[in-house]
Amino acid sequence: MTQDLAADGMTGAARDDRQGRFATLTFERAVAAPASVLWKVWTDPAARAVWSPPAPSVTVEFLEADTRVGGREISLCKVEGQPDIRCENGWLVLQSQTRSVNYEVTSSEGVTLSAALVTAEISGAGPHSRLRVTVQLSSLAEDMEAGYRQGFGAGLDNLAGVAERTMLLQRVIKAPRAVVWGAWMNPETLPQWWGPDGFSCRTARIDLRAGGEWVFDMIAPDGTVFPNHHRYTVVQPQTRIGYALLWGENGPKHADAWATFEDDDGATKVTLGMVFSSTAEFQDAKGFGAVELGLQTLGKLEKFILARPA
Asked: Mapping DSSP to helix (H, G, I), strand (E, B) and coil, where does residue 125 land?
């Protein structure tokens, strides 16, 4: 959940044993976003890949992600010229919008560096929330406390900013998860329903796999053309999609996005999340009605599914 590399901006307290191998670190952040958004930013791998690097020189690559109790997650923290740090995270408790507990084991070049128990508590109502994170750290190969202080502190500073420019859209669709997934991740059907009411899609090429892409134009009712390019990074069948949104083919990225699919009493809850590249882009998107237009898109998905023969 965090990376133990240099950065500043941590508030916390620690308690060590005599050997300096055990520490309890506490971090708190006030976030200008609702608890529902903060929860998704905290738990969703697509969002965490954006905020968890503690410095611009660091990248985080998720190799495995299963965000459910008993699920495991594996990521690599990368800095040019240094050995990768492998982080294995296992979810022990997931109480939506309230509390999570996970274990975390870091290693590098086959040597286990640390083990930790991480507890996150979310509180607040309305447009603001608060995150409190407690890390019970055991350093194994070397003293990892300073790295955790710096890495968690900088990562949580980033998280607060990411939450403030994250947009979440949800819809419960009255169809089984396999059917909803099939309508979304099918190169023939996706262009038929994607986009707000009255919009159509014109595809240049489409490959709906991890590492694939969809290059297309969205055409408004008045004929205005909006070039789009989706680059897919994660495809977990019937569970999760992660992708980057670009302004036209190979254009600048304006958001990191993800979609999740969950069973909901015979129906499917679809969550579409977008972390915009800047606060200005987030505000611009809200200003031109991105929430309403996005909900129209999910509504078109449901209409498309329900109109098809069973």
From this structure: coil
CATH number for the domain whose boundaries are 22-163: 3.30.530.20
pLDDT digits (tens, 9 = 90+) for 20-79: 589 999 999 999 999 999 999 999 988 988 999 999 999 998 898 889 999 999 999 999
**Helix H or strand E encompassing 206:** strand 200-206
pTM comes to 0.86
CB atoms within 10 A of CB 94: 17
Q: Which of 194, 199, 201 is nearest to 300 (CA)?
A: 194
Please spell the DSSP secondary structure of 224-246, one letter per residue.
Answer: -EEEEEEEEEEEETTTEEEEEEE
Q: List the domain boundaries for the chain.
A: 22-163, 167-307
Please tell me the distance from the alpha carbon of residue 14 to that of residue 156, in angstroms, as a whole number. 17
The answer to whether the 22-163 and 167-307 domains have the same CATH topology is yes
In angstroms, the CA 30 to CA 17 distance is 30
Return the CATH superfamily for domain 167-307: START domain (3.30.530.20)
- Rg of the chain on CA atoms, in Å: 20
Do 202 and 220 contact (CB within 8 A), yes or no?
no
